Amino acid sequence: MKQKMKLYALYLKDLQTMGTRQEHIRKYYITLITAIFTILSLGGSTLMFSMTPALIVLVSIFGDLLCGVWLLHMISYRTLFEAKFRVLKDMENNGKLPFHPFTSETTEKAFSKSWHFQMTWIDIIIAALFIGLFITLPFLTRAAPAVPH
């Protein structure tokens, strides 16, 4: 039983480490996207940052690719989290552990009257929204009135 508990604890630690890595990756992508929008906000204020339609399309394509990679990254984390939780539940149920926190938590969420939305889905939705924003960016600049320098 002691070995099973150690294995369970190690697996939980790995899950925690994975969550920390996901948070760092999320911050990385948000930092890159913020940098893109910072550069775009400087557009037109100096000759060096003159935003031509071709440059806006290029930035839009780069932003879409970046967000697409972010989206795939978050989907991969979601899949990995789901697999790890299934393994933990299996360890609880088939390993004859004295307690079953993940199985109990899943049951409680299922019977809870409150609404629960898994955090990994939020990451996926945010990345998808940024993809939409970058897709529309070239069209927004064409629709906006020209501002004199």
Overall description:
By secondary structure, the chain is mostly helical. It has one domain. About 80% of the residues lie in helices and about 0% in strands. It has helices at about 1-40, 55-95, 100-110, 120-145. Helix 1 (about 1-40) runs antiparallel to helix 2 (about 55-95) and helix 2 (about 55-95) runs antiparallel to helix 4. The longest helix has about 40 residues, at about 55-95. The relative contact order is 0.14. The model has no long low-confidence stretch (mean pLDDT about 80).
Question: In short, what is this structure?
Answer:
By secondary structure, this protein is mainly α.
SSE blueprint:
Layout: H1 2-42, H2 53-94, H3 101-111, H4 119-143
Taken together, the total number of domains comes to 1
Which structural class do you get from the secondary structure elements?
A: mainly alpha
**Mean residue pLDDT:** 81
How many DSSP helices?
4
Largest sheet: none
In terms of quaternary structure, the protein is single chain
> Poorly predicted ranges (pLDDT <50, ≥5 residues)?
none
Shape: elongated
Measured by DSSP, the beta-strand proportion falls in under 5%
Name its key features.
single chain, 149 residues
